[in-house]
Amino acid sequence: MRILFDYIVIGAGFAGTVIAERIARINNKKVLVIEKRNHIGGNAYDTYDHSGVLVHQYGPHIFHTKLKEVWEYLSEHTEWYLYHHKVLGKIDGKEVPIPFNLDSLDQLFPSDMAKRLEKKLIENFGFNVKVPILKLKDTQDEDLQFLANYIYEKVFLNYTMKQWGMKPDEIDPYVTGRVPVYISRDDRYFQDPFQGVPKYGYTKLFESLLSHPNIKLMLNTDYKELININMEEKKIYFGEKEYTGKVIFTGKIDEFFQYKYGELPYRSLQFQFDTIQEERYQKVGTLNYPNDYDFTRITEFKKLTGQNHPHTTIVREYPVSYDKEVEGQNIPYYPIPKEENHLIYKQYKKEGSLYENVYFLGRLAEYTYYDMDAVVAKALKVFRDKLSCE
Questions:
Q1: Among 374, 380, 68, which residue's Cα sits nearest to residue 194?
Q2: Where do the domains of the chain lie, and which CATH numbers do they carry?
């Protein structure tokens, strides 16, 4: 039987879609993309709700990058709505900028105290810099230690416990270390030079990426319906025949190996969407609730997309435990950053290296959290380094 496809890509999120586009266009090879869900785009999928508001079905996605190559590559497939994301946090009854910055200081503390703290921050660390909360806690100055403890308790502690279902000291220290104090009055959540959302939506972007005639897309299809993995022979079978082309796998690596070394844990999310019969709901795109309620944040989509509409749609975000058997908890969003989990992943990674014609790519296959630009960059690199000469 003649091989109809030179490559099989499993998963139609950013990782799978980008590499499929590169293979089809640059290598001029036939690619089959298999996607379990009934849509393309992975967790970046967006759609119009019943009221006609464009919403991100799996939570807010704001594209931001320092990588000009990534921005220019995606710009071949979309125009951009040039949006700079702003986040406020509900702290002591006030809505203040997140990450915590000099404006947050002014809004939460008495004027004399805020000025004193600002002066000490600039003297110790400089201006327009981000200081990790742990570094701030290590200072000998009592005022700065007070500020570090305040931010840790009011901004980070309870939010982390909701987000991860664990106390901060139960997860890898780098998660805590990433919490910054921004010694600046720049209220943007990101400072990258390229920021925005696709002007006509992420789904349209993915449609463009997959529109090449060399790409065949199958939705609503579990790859296991078509592909059999012989773990003893380290071979892939497509139907009844051995498949000698290349497979790019972007799903869960533990699932690929039938949970041989155990199941890799994740956090999942549940979303409550509400359409409000008003033009606007909140001041900024996202409002964090670190200390109140069971949800972590509320996002208003029109703020992100710039859509003109008489009504607005918001989403409340509830972190939950991941369980692949439970509807509503069976989407793996965030790999849990604990050393024992990384050790399990390393066993799967070693096993994967024994398959000469399989590449593991993306958040689930590499058990690491990627921003959207980072996974695009990784897909471009894998293609450039390993596949472009084929």
A1: 68
A2: 7-40+210-264+336-387 (3.40.50.720), 87-183 (no CATH)
